Amino acid sequence: MKHIIVTGHSKGLGAGITTALIHEDHHIHGISRTDNTDLQKLAKAKGCQMDFYSCDLSHTDTIEPVMQQIFNNIDKENCDGIYLVNNAGVIKPIGPLETLEPADMEIHMRVNLLAPMFIIREFVKQFSGWKTEKRILNISSGAAINPYHGWSNYCTGKAGLDMFTRCIATEQDDQEYPVKLMAVAPGIIDTEMQTTIRGTTDDQFIHREKFVELKESGQLVPPNLAGKKLTKLLFSDNFSNGDITDIRDQY
User: Whole-structure pTM over 0.70, yes or no?
Assistant: First the structure.
């Protein structure tokens, strides 16, 4: 039985990833603020066990107990791999720095950077000694390396997640049973985040019109298609510890 933890599993790209993961030999552990009953029904129909853990990742003090629950739900004797997909993220606040509220900036960093850092800490702490395949796929963005006017928080958080991925990968290199980590930019996905981006003003985000054109010209990637590609990478022989990549360069 492969155990896969997915954050933000109930909507958007997370739902696309979870859909691709539904398999009778998988046990999916979904961490999100709300559940997705359609995914639960699909999992049940396909004989896939799926557990939902209610968690608002902006409240980082709740992460350790949630990860402990997941740890308690994994049978070490019947485990053929443990996987984590850090997908949950937010785009707000958007706009020039001086227009942003510090409280909104703090929530952004909790969700996009601190939460995955804390989750990875618990993952490594709980599972590092287990003699089984252990992989972490962090969902990054092209914004991690390309600065965008109005996206100072988003670009900074994703750049930080990339570097954290690389740092923990080096710590795991000399372990007897290492945890392998990668960060991957998934492309431009047709999700609520894109709706939020298109709903900004030109003053908030000077590249808004570009994203409107991407939607109108049908260039946004459906979440289920992106989910299939990311799942393929998660289980692939090409999963290389410490790599930062773009899914469009893989498949």
Answer: yes
CA 86/CA 172 separation, integer angstroms: 18
93 cis-preceded (ω within 30 degrees of 0): yes
Q: What angle do CA 240, 246, 250 make, to 5 degrees?
A: 65
Q: Please confirm, yes or no, whether 154 is among the known catalytic residues.
A: yes
Q: Which domains does the chain have, with CATH numbers?
A: 2-186+223-246 (3.40.50.720)
Sorted by sequence, the CB contacts under 8 Å of residue 84 that are 6+ apart come out as 4, 5, 6, 119, 120, 123, 135, 136, 137
| Distance, CA of 120 to CA of 117 (rounded, Å) | 5
The single residue of 148, 154, 177, 251 carrying the catalytic annotation is 154
pLDDT tens, residue by residue, 169-225: 999 999 999 999 999 999 999 999 999 999 999 999 999 999 999 999 999 999 999
Q: For 142-156, what is each residue's pLDDT tens digit?
A: 999 999 999 999 999
Q: Is 237 exposed, middle or buried (0-12, 13-18, 19+ CB in 10 A)?
A: exposed
